[in-house]
Amino acid sequence: MRQTTAIKVLSPRGEGIAAHMEEILALTGEDPQREGLKRTPERWEKAMRFLTSGYQTRLEDIVNGALFAVKFDEMVVVRDIEFYSMCEHHLLPFHGRMHVAYLPTTKVIGLSKIPRIVNMFARRFQVQERLTQEVAEAVSECVTPRGVAVMCEASHFCMMMRGVEKQGSTTVTSAMLGTFRENKATRDEFLSMVSRGAR
To answer: Which of 128, 134, 152, 189 is catalytic?
Structure first.
């Protein structure tokens, strides 16, 4: 799994991100001292602190012992997990839904932990392909299942607001581990369950 380094985000102005925002605003042609922008560096720093909080989150803290021995070997699917992330290429948002499934062996994970795992990786600078893979690997690491499947569908502001400016396009990525990769019937069952819930 990708190693990450915590981002240094400090305040008040004079340190960290807020200290540089005034110059960035000026370079765009704006007046950083006008009323509407005077507090923008601090507000933007606070927003970035939240949007990149995944760098300060650890998988073991999320799971926090919420693994339970259960005699259940059928597919577990958590569908339509909303997420918001930041594209690492342009620092513009992308957002969408993720479907996560696994086939347990001897234990299951608390259901709320899976959306929290998604959030942990989404709240970093990302590309959708890596985000999808990281979620799959994290679930596999926690539960040690027979297999994990993740499907992600997202809209990217770097395609909507700039570049090709295609507002209706979406990107779909998937990651299949273990039985989901090796067994077509298992993979098809997952895809069928996901498609039944499609809006």
So the answer is: 128
CB 46 within 8 Å of CB 70: no
Residue 15 neighbours by CB under 8 Å, 6+ apart:
none
> 1-51: which CATH topology?
GTP Cyclohydrolase I; Chain A, domain 1 (1.10.286)
CA distance 32 to 25: 6
Reply yes or no on whether 20 is catalytic. no
Q: What CATH number belongs to 62-196?
A: 3.30.1130.10
Global pTM? 0.88
List the chain residues with pLDDT less than 50: 5-7, 9-14
In the residue annotation, 95 being an active-site residue is answered as no
Q: Indicate the domain borders of the chain.
A: 1-51, 62-196
Residue 142 annotated as catalytic? no
pLDDT tens for each residue of 130-157: 999 999 999 999 999 999 999 999 998 8
